[in-house]
Amino acid sequence: MKINFGRLAYCFILVFLAMIAGRYYNSFGMLNWYNEIEKPMMTPPDMVFPIVWSILYTLMAIAFYQAFMVANTDKKRQKLNGYFLGLLFLHVLWSYAFFYMGYIGMALIIVIIIDIVSYMIMMMFWATSTASALMFFPYFVWILFATYLNASFVNLNGFIIFLE
């Protein structure tokens, strides 16, 4: 398959913009309250998250590009694009709710929606390109782990972290 650099750039730019927005909100929480609250026992060290997310976002962009290129109709490409854009928006919204606002209960609801949308995307990828689905799978597993962590944060700290 010949590489379409315009579409490849589009896929990476979308993911990059979501990553930058998420990191902005994450850094706010890290600087203001995150280190002061009780964390679940299975919470990885803080340094793990940027490494894992950089890898996962890269795999997501490649998986999206692959599926986008293999999709055989404009309707399928539009559907993939819409769901993927929605997923990226939900990621930014989760970072805003969890880290920026401290609304970890609301973030739990958002991450459950992310789980559902991610599963739907993985199934669309599977129907279009097995390679895309396999590249997306590590992200799906990680987001399920993130859901567990988010639920554990709510269990340990309540639904809202109040900033003082």
In terms of DSSP E residues, the strand content is: under 5%
Spatial shape: elongated
Task: Please state the second-level CATH architecture.
Answer: Up-down Bundle
State the CATH superfamily name.
TspO/MBR protein
Helix/strand class: mainly alpha
The span between the termini is 55 Å
How does the SSE layout of this entry go?
Layout (H helix, E strand, L loop, with lengths): L4 H28 L15 H23 L3 H27 L3 H25 L1 H28 L7
Helix pairs in contact: 1-2, 1-3, 2-3, 2-5, 3-4, 4-5
Keywords:
164 residues; Ferritin; 5 helices; 80% helix
Task: Please explain how this structure is put together.
The chain is an all-alpha fold and 164 residues long. The chain has one domain (5-157): Up-down Bundle (Ferritin), CATH 1.20.1260. Helices cover 80% and strands 0% of the residues. The protein has helices at residues 5-32, 48-70, 74-100, 104-128, 130-157. Helix 2 (48-70) runs antiparallel to helix 3, helix 3 packs antiparallel against helix 4 (104-128) and helix 4 (104-128) packs antiparallel against helix 5 (130-157). The longest helix is centred in the first third of the chain and has 28 residues, at 5-32. It is elongated.
